[in-house]
Amino acid sequence: MLNNIKSNQFHKKDLNILYSFNELICEKNLLKPKQRILICVSGGQDSMCLIKLLFRLQTKWNWTLGIIHCDHQWNSMSKLQGNYVSQLAYSMKLDYYQVITVNSINSEVSARTWRYHLITQIAYRHKYDVILTAHTANDRIETFFYNLFRGSSINGLQALAWKKKIILKIYINNISLFNNIDLLFQLKYKENIYQIKIHKYISVSIIRPLLITSRLEIRFLLKKWNFPVWVDPSNRFIAIYRNRIRHRLIPYIRLYFQPKFDQAITNCLELVQCENIHLYKLANYIKFQIQIFSKNEKKHYKYKAIPIAILGSLPIFLQRRIIKLFIDNQNHNKMIYHQIEHLRIKALNQIHFSKNIQNHTMLYSNLLLYKGMNFPISYKEELLITNHFIFIQRFK
Predict the structure, then answer these.
(1) Where are the alpha helices (DSSP H) in the chain?
(2) Which of 49, 202, 227, 339 has the smallest CB count inside 10 Å?
(3) Residues of the chain with pLDDT > 70: what percent?
(4) What tens digit of pLDDT does each residue of 3-25 get?
(5) Dihedral through CA 151, CA 254, CA 49, CA 167, nearest 10?
(6) Cα separation of the two ends of the chain
(7) 146-175 pLDDT, tens per residue?
(8) Pick among 3.30.465, 1.10.10, 3.30.450, 2.60.120: CATH of 291-395
(9) Does residue 31 carry a pLDDT above 90?
């Protein structure tokens, strides 16, 4: 009788967990019915919890789920970890994709770039609507510190967002690339060899539905479910920058400053993200209202410009955001704070110079400023600063 009561209690808790997770998806508008979802699964506790929750809700939402596993070959156990994830996908009757590096990846940044590039390629190739990752509240905190030490802006300090769009560059040649997936992957690095004539950009959304869930809560759930997980030895390597934050810095803060540090910083980051979204929309609206478009048929180029006088009348934090939005929309090499500030000061100082429109400042392709020179910021485009406008000039 006691066992039956415990079993019923666990079943009720299980339903409450699924209900809460389902409500979060609806509240944040993270997923929609009938979507094709590609789930990044490492085999660790976070990703295993995510796949179990989604698998339980699959019938309700009519989702089509797929699993992808990336093997960085950072340790001798990585192959066994991949085999474990593939067996899990087989038991759940889900499509499975495995990516294994053939070259040595020595840094977190290189690993992340390699991983996201191939995941988005596979998602696009197999027509998945979204990519899901198992980033938790702890990952959010670690990313906050990681970006803080790098000197990031508020966009970086908000750390991981619930949703993120990744821009994917697709090259199209005369040959049929879509019938040769291996060739499609290689084209990013061998553009000149294959004489590519057309390229286009597409976006793939990354969703992180576990951002308010801690690792402690996930560990508790998996223990209740008796769900086995694979412990990745590389997560204990102190040589990895993020692991030092996880195993050294954060425990020190909990011990000597704030025992409930995790919840406090998670709430703070959620507020920062909400405010940042509002400021982004405000800056984008102002940019849309003040930017000017013009066309010169004789010289065959187009202008897009922002009046410096109007820009200078706005608060400094909006000036920086508008400049960044104005340039980043054209240039996929995103600007950093010092570059934006340099450009902003140069533009505002131009108001006090003589009205010689021939003297202008250019933004070079590596985002450094030079005066009186014309360099592109993207394909067939260049940026100029005159006495009254910040221009982006596009040649036909």
Answers:
(1) 2-27, 45-61, 78-92, 108-125, 137-149, 154-157, 181-186, 215-225, 241-244, 250-256, 261-290, 308-312, 316-328, 337-349
(2) 202
(3) 73
(4) 343 333 445 556 777 888 999 99
(5) -10
(6) 80
(7) 888 887 777 767 768 888 887 766 655 544
(8) 3.30.465
(9) yes
User: Residue 159 pairs with which residues in a beta bridge?
Assistant: none
Structural tokens at position 3: 């066992």
Highest mean pLDDT among 2-16, 324-338, 353-367: 324-338
Positions of CATH 3.30.465 in the chain: 291-395
Tokens of 219: 């560990």
Token pair, residue 197, equals 């004539």
β-sheet with 36-40: strand ranges across = 95-100, 64-71, 36-40, 130-132, 198-207, 163-172
Q: What is the DSSP string of 213-263?
A: --HHHHHHHHHHHT------GGGG-TTSHHHHIIIIIHHHHHHHT-TTHHH
- Token pair, residue 217, equals 């809560």
At residue 63, the pLDDT reads: 95
Superfamily of domain 17-273 in the CATH hierarchy:
HUPs (3.40.50.620)
**Tell me, what's the pLDDT at 169?**
65
Q: Which two tokens stand for residue 326?
A: 């104005």
Highest mean pLDDT out of 194-208, 250-264, 346-360 = 250-264
Mean pLDDT of 104-131: 85
The residues that bridge with 305 in the sheet, in sequence order, are 292, 391
Backbone angles phi, psi at 365, to 5 degrees: -60, -25
